[in-house]
Write a structure and sequence with these properties.
Number of strands: 17
Oligomer: single chain
Largest sheet: 5 strands, mixed
């Protein structure tokens, strides 16, 4: 960043449980402490230190509210995070900004076997004191409190080995304080979390649509939730079990079935938790940017910690979006390492290299996000009043698996497979693995809607936090929605703007992320999972090899061996390494031709590599080096500079010692002259005395 004056991005990727989150944490710690030498020169060292502390405090907060235990990882990130660490002109941290992507909302209401809900719920149940438990309606026994709520007991696992949720709750509370969340606000957050747990325990009865769903008036969980949310109990219970249809002339209220009411109940819980998560991210950004997130910055280093490729026994909409994001990241990696690399070789007209074939995943991405791709078909079905998951699956079968000739290998349809047996399923051939998705639930999760009547009830809350959460959803720091489509010119539209689907929002935010990455210098960290059992010192070689092959590391090694991973512009190369040429040379001028520059660069390389042309090549505008060769040239430059420095030092020391010698010689001659004068005068005096004595004696 300092040398090239270009923003940087570090992309941490790998399978779920491979260590991406821990790697990102260590990177953040390094950047928060790596510029200690600049603090003494900075005008406001305390402010910088505060930002560093806040950056590190974001880890326990976001892990608590956004991470959960899965079958593959005890601390799996269920959202994507892009952290911009912003530096000032003196290259010291001055601010930071976080963007989040696709929080897994469905985890709040459903967890598979042996998995957990988000950590914060178990931390609250284990770490709350007696007064807080009484106020929030939580069980007194902290060890088994998780088994009292529907939203925390579904996985059958309430604890993680070697993790103390009570201590983690204390750490989370302290971290919230560091980022500026007051004790009062933390109390409101705890009340909202407890209300979500009680919402999951609301018992909804009703056998048929004619009878209608109902909530008992003495339902304790509902009363607790309403009390903690400070909302109207009657209206809340009414719109949990009834729906309103607005026509041109009237509003029709009808009963919902129990299954429909349960869906609405869970949607409300997901809706509230998603807005709480977004509010926390906004609070973090408010603290990290000192309230001015749009302020210009000299440079930044981005750290992308995003969910890894996921392949479970049952894969739904969340896994589909996660794997879609990984496809885009893999494409960026392919472009960075393979496509752009080899295209540059061709553009520079290099010789002595072979074209490396690699698997291009663009057809798979077209299958997902194309004009008639899976996301487009899903949005089309969501716009229909009677849209169903079965119809969505049928549309995909007709579009990508219609009877006829086999599609071409590079066609999007070649990456789609229709199951032989079973309905509402489809398989996508991802770059890492073929994944079978269950289409059931795609429509509901993509719509991600909560009835407007319940939203109005929640917005009318008498509390201070809930209205604040719901007042400005557009300010969310997470997935930013694309602008709504405008009606055609000359056409009057009376229909209200349609809310974008979750898939469209995610697609738009992912495109924005890729634009940011492509505008910076990318660096990749590939995290490799050694085994499936989550055991230390256990190495499953076939599994590791499959990951290396899937994420492109083996292909990277191939192209690095066959290509030229290091390069420098010819003028920069000459300016830095012309010292390797022996003897004086005529300086090049801006008017010198490109051929003269290339010829001089060739002379330098001939001297550096002793007439071995296979180690480097001179292109049209750049000098290319084999792996490790640039370091060898740099070593020779350092050695030449050391010899030159030693020679200069020897001449300077010789000059200094000669001057010292001449000064000492002059001093010695002066002393000798004075001493001889004294001795001569003594001898003269003695001769005079002797002559006088002889004269007297005579």
């Amino acid at each position: 960043m300092v040398r090239d004056r270009r923003n940087q991005t570090i992309i941490v990727s790998g399978e779920s449980g491979a260590g991406k989150t821990m790697s990102a944490k260590y990177i953040m710690r390094y950047f928060a402490s790596a510029h200690d030498d600049t603090k003494a020169q900075d005008a406001a060292p305390d402010a910088i230190s505060r930002v560093e502390e806040q950056i590190l405090a974001t880890n326990p907060v976001l892990e608590s509210f956004g991470n959960a235990k899965t079958t593959r990882n005890d601390n799996s990130s269920r959202f994507g995070k892009f952290l911009e660490i912003r530096f000032n002109e003196r290259h010291a941290i001055e601010a930071a900004y976080i963007r989040t992507y696709l929080l897994e909302r469905s985890r709040l209401v459903y967890q598979p076997a042996s998995e957990r809900n988000y950590h914060v719920f178990y931390q609250l149940l284990a770490g709350a004191d007696k007064d807080m438990r009484t106020r929030l309606g939580l069980p007194a026994d902290a060890a088994t409190a998780w088994d009292s709520f529907n939203y925390t007991r579904q996985g059958g696992s309430g604890q993680i080995a070697n993790v103390d949720d009570a201590k983690e709750f204390e750490h989370t509370s302290n971290a919230l304080g560091v980022i500026g969340v007051t004790t009062e606000q933390q109390g409101h957050i705890h009340a909202l979390l407890a209300a979500l747990l009680h919402i999951g325990n609301i018992d909804i009865t009703g056998a048929s649509e004619r009878v209608g769903a109902a909530i008992a008036t003495d339902d304790t969980a509902c009363a607790r939730a309403v009390e903690l949310l400070q909302i109207d109990s009657t209206l809340f219970c009414k719109w949990l079990t009834k729906r309103q249809i607005v026509t041109r002339s009237e509003k029709i209220v009808s009963n919902m079935t129990r299954a429909q009411a349960l869906v609405v109940r869970d949607s409300v819980a997901k809706f509230l938790y998603a807005h709480l998560f977004d509010w926390i991210v906004r609070a973090i950004n408010q603290a990290l940017t000192c309230g001015d997130s749009s302020a210009p910055t000299a440079s930044f280093i981005g750290v992308l910690d995003i969910y890894g490729f996921e392949h479970f026994e049952h894969n739904s909409f969340e896994q589909f979006c996660i794997n879609y994001a990984n496809e885009k990241l893999q494409q960026n990696f392919n472009r960075h390492v393979f496509k752009l690399e080899q295209e540059e070789y061709q553009r520079e007209q290099l010789e002595n290299w072979t074209f490396v074939d690699f698997q291009d995943n663009q057809p798979c991405i077209d299958l997902i996000e194309g004009k008639l791709g899976i996301l487009a078909l899903l949005d089309e079905e969501c716009r229909l009043q009677q849209g169903t998951d079965a119809n969505f699956a049928e549309k995909m079968y007709k579009q990508f698996a219609a009877p006829g000739p086999k599609p071409k290998p590079d066609a999007p349809a070649a990456f789609f497979q229709k199951p032989r047996f079973g309905a509402c399923e489809f398989t996508v051939r991802h770059y890492a693995h073929d994944v079978a998705y269950e289409a059931e639930g795609f429509i509901e999760k993509n719509k991600d809607t909560v009835p407007e009547e319940i939203q109005n009830v929640l917005k009318a809350s008498q509390g201070s936090l809930l209205p604040q959460l719901l007042s400005d959803p557009s300010a969310s720091a997470s997935d930013s929605a694309p602008p709504p489509a405008q009606p055609a010119a000359g056409r009057l539209s009376v229909r209200a703007a349609r809310k974008p689907t979750l898939g469209a929002v995610f697609k738009h935010s992912l495109a924005s992320l890729m634009d940011t990455i492509e505008a910076t210098e990318s660096h990749y960290i590939r995290c490799i999972k050694p085994n499936e059992a989550k055991q230390a010192w256990a190495f499953d070689a076939p599994m590791v090899l499959a990951q290396l092959r899937a994420c492109g590391v083996l292909e990277t090694i191939r192209i690095s061996c066959a290509g030229y991973p290091s390069r420098l512009p010819i003028p920069d190369f000459i300016h830095r390494y012309r010292i390797l040429l022996p003897g004086p040379m005529e300086p090049l001028t801006p008017e010198s031709s490109l051929d003269e520059y290339r010829a001089l660069a060739g002379r330098i390389l001939a001297v550096a590599f002793d007439q071995q042309p296979d180690r480097s090549q001179v292109g049209l505008t750049k000098v290319f080096f084999r792996a490790g060769m640039l370091a060898l040239v740099e070593k020779q430059r350092v050695e030449r500079l050391n010899v030159a420095a030693t020679t200069i030092q020897a001449l300077v020391r010789c000059f200094q010692q000669r001057q010292r010698f001449l000064r000492e010689k002059r001093a010695v001659l002066l002393l000798q002259t004075l001493a001889r004068g004294v001795l001569a005068r003594r001898q003269l005096r003695m001769l005079r005395d002797t002559s006088a004595a002889t004269s007297i004696q005579a």
